[in-house]
Amino acid sequence: MFSPITINTTTTGRPLRLHLVSTGKGLDKTRFRQARFRNKLSILDAILDRRFTEWIPIWVLIIEHPDGTFIVDTGLDPAISRPGYFKTSGFAVTRYMRSQFRFRITPDDGIDQQLIKLNIPIPSVKAVILTHLHFDHTGGLRHFPQTPILLNRKEWKRPAGALKKLYPPGFQPTLLDLNTPLDPFPNTCPLVPDNSLTLVHTPGHTPGHCSVLIKTDTGHILFGGDACYTQDQLAETKFAANMASYKAAKRTYRKIKEFARNHPLCFLTTHDRESTDRLAQRTPLHFSQ
Ligand SMILES: [Zn+2]
């Protein structure tokens, strides 16, 4: 299992604590993780691939901000271990999910249990922020029936690859319109009054995919969700096989790099094995292209 990490820092002189916890782990095909084509053929290529990758984490970021505790994504549901988990999504989805991926998560690794370990009561959580609607990011939503779930309106209107039958009953997120520019990102939305937490539209993986930008007193941290699977992919402009739009993803990569040129940026993703090391060291994003 991937070890969690906690870091203590400040934002405008006030304490800010961040936790990364992995809600289980997953395996996918090597050509799914990194596509050989930049079009829909890449999915077929991944299906035909016989090789699986090494285990990867499913990080959830917990932000204890002076204005409240925010949780970015909710990870996998331990119920995924049950054979019928995907049944409501139909035969084809079940077959695809079970043949192309492997997931391991114990009840102890669910987001609810991880919050107990961190001494963070669920009623004290101000909001859950979703980067997008894929099941490995929404699996813990049922633990937050009273908590506002913040989501880009675009993601709600045009979900790509979301398994709606796995949403909790009556799921109704609070939809945000991202119409504030934050150079070089054209579409962002501040989440706290002093703009130290911002939702940033980073399309590509899905049309409405978002990242969360955190401004600390020693530099910025971007939790990039599935904008890419690893920092290396971003640095080398490589893509996973399941991009809803490679064109949009390429533009997103350019914007993140442009931001990183102007501000020291520690870049994290949901499935990067190195995310915790980079957060611990506050390693800035480096790239040559
Ligand atoms: Zn994911």
The main sheet comes to: 8 strands, mixed
Task: Report the uncertain regions.
Answer: none
Q: How many H/I helices?
A: 9
Amino- and carboxy-terminal Cα gap = 34 Å
CATH superfamily: Ribonuclease Z/Hydroxyacylglutathione hydrolase-like
Count of spatially separate domains: 1
Sum up the overall morphology in one term.
globular
Structural class: alpha/beta
Under CATH at level 1, the class stands as Alpha Beta
CATH topology call: Metallo-beta-lactamase, Chain A
The helix fraction, in percent, is 10-25%
Kindly state the number of beta strands. Answer: 14
Order of secondary-structure elements: EEHHEEHEHEHEHEEEEEEHHEH
Radius of gyration: 18 Å
Beta content: 25-35%
Oligomer: single chain
What is the CATH architecture assignment? Answer: 4-Layer Sandwich
Average residue pLDDT: 96
